[in-house]
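Just curious. Invent one:
>
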Amino acid sequence: MKRTILPNQFIAVVITLLLFIAGCGPEEEAHEYLSITNTEYVNGTDTDDGMIMRVYTYDIQTKALTKLSDLPYTSQYPLTVASLANDTIYYSGVGKDKGDELFSYDIQAQKTQQLSTGLFAINSIIPDTVDHTLVMAAVKKGERPVKVIFFDQKTQEMNILNDYDSDTTTWDISYNPETRKTYAIQYSEEEQYIHMEQSNKAQTPLVPPNHTIIEIDPISMQTRKVIELHEEQILTLSARADQIMIATAKHINKYPIEYSMVNIRTGERTKMSFPIKASSELRLSKDGRGFYFLGEYVDANIKHERGIYYYDLKTQEFEEVFLQKEGFINNFTKTIAK
């Protein structure tokens, strides 16, 4: 059953989230921060001297913004994630055999190391999950589907979920520190191709294939379907406690975008309405009282500039975190400094 609620009615929905988190163990006492990727021109004006990926962190408790490092932008998609627990920045860069690979940058030693081989592109990186495991959404060389890959940060071995499935592709991933499991948005490439053919023939907007969110146990690699949406695209997800926040659209690359909370255990979906425009990078707060997002918002009929904001679900107020002034904000993630 689906239902729609407004932000000021949202307290009843998140109360279980708050209770769940209040009862969690010591891991939840570790403070959290945002890791931000911002691409900028080396010379400040054009690409003549190349571009860099500027890495920032934002301390959620102190609200301090810190520039960590500048890294070379050589990958197809600029992607960095700072692990303060390891004093390391993980990022995507062009490897020795061309395709994009996983790299690490030691912040103290200022040394770079290529960690992976055999990859073509990396769309998401989540460090410091279960047992020193880093999770990626990445494409292997010579293949099309995006896979969920578990990378052991100690042994540098990769464990690929459903490695031989040549049809299912992964759109986005999220790690839930309360359930200690990973959640992934997936769909069928064959089904999407059929929809593209139908759209081209009829000259109509592209209807997405069914999108599914699965839960992945990092130890057993067993999966469980949380929810499947019929001909609706799930653009991004953020899992926290017993809820997953999602952004969805009825047509690919078209507005409007809708926002919902999904109960992880039951799959029940609750639609919400917010004065924002964000198609990626939604991050639920630790206390369940709000979320961070990359995009724009409208306040008193005034459209505010693109950036990272925090939205308080109770007060319905926005807080600026990082505005797009120089360069371009590509992505951000929320992680724990243990």
Remarks:
- The CA atoms of residues 24 and 141 lie 40 Å apart.
